[in-house]
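Recall from the previous lesson that a structure prediction takes nothing but the amino acid sequence as input. Here we apply that procedure to YciI family protein from Sinorhizobium psoraleae. The sequence below is the only information supplied.
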Amino acid sequence: MLYAVFCYNSEDVTGTWTKEQDGKVMRDMAAVEKKYAEAGKLGPVARLLPTTAATTLRHGGGEPIVIDGPFAETKEQLLGFFIVDCASLEEAIAFSRELGEVNPSPGAYEIRPLAIYKPSELPS
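The prediction returns the following tokens.
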């Protein structure tokens, strides 16, 4: 069985880290990742950019609405994610709109740019 592990922390805390502090955390995490990667148990690793970069497409009950920010209702749970390679935010919104059209339940698709981190490419 595969598991997605979502890392939650306070952006108010991590956003104040210096480049050196962030680099140390990334190197420390890379050591843990390496063990699982060598065992063939680690898939892609992605770090979401801050919530200020998020866009949400709200659908259900009428015309879909595109809003800035990660505005999912607290009664909703994160159920999964898609990684799509889009040329622009507009293309990512179009993809999300199509998902909303075929999803019978009301909900939200949060659209966040990704920064990909590869342990082999981290500075030492």
